[in-house]
Amino acid sequence: MNTGRLIFTHVIDLLDRKEFQRCIEQYPMPRVSKGMTARDQFLAMAFAQITFRESLRDIEACLRGCSHLYAMEIRGNVTRTNLAYANEHRDWRVYEALAQVLIRKARRLYREDSNGLDIDEMVYAVNASTIDLCLSMFPWAHFRKTKAAIKLHTQIDLTGSIPVFMHVTDGSVHDVHFMDRMLFEAGSIYVFDRGYLDFARLFGIESANAYFVIRAKSNMRFSLLSLVQSISPAVCAAIKPFGSALTKVNETTLKNSDVSASLIPRLESARSS
Description:
This protein is α/β, with parallel strands linked by helices.
């Protein structure tokens, strides 16, 4: 017979009670549920995520048949009604603040690890994933006429592969809008796919004294001004459009360049007219 602690409680030990309580006090619930505290709600939903529960009924049935609720630190009455009320009325920013606390802890643990790129600067990868949903069950997730979806925009710290910022939108929202919510750190490098190619937004990274790496679209017209020795071997070339008289440069030429370059994105939206 196992007399030790449950694995679930070892996972929950990562949560500091005082920090969690500060998050709750920062975003109080208008009408507190007496049968279920914010901690009980979080523990129930964390258990559901870890054990792949599929519905509130599934969560209730599984926890009701569990004889270790006290050992799991769940003190409230976990019912479908209590869970549904808490999920609908408790401010989601409580758990966003808690996630930021855990992210800071994780980044401190991986601070001395290498990001595999042999550079000292912080490197972030930015991408988005579309998650298909059933249109009849999620009509609010606008995507297409016959399909619903949400889009998960993520900024990942490559040192430890830790997500530092995530944002969920409708599936119809373009990837580039995620850049409006990002806070750029001076001296850091941001890696984007070509879907984030927007000169005005990229100039915001330059204004923050940060750097970016991005794939060029096949129809992008630009002129190579110069190659500048970079603080790291990670980036491409300094480019600037010339309005209507743009010269197209082969992307392969930049990729094969032996000179590391600092991206100075003083770019304007290229007008093909």
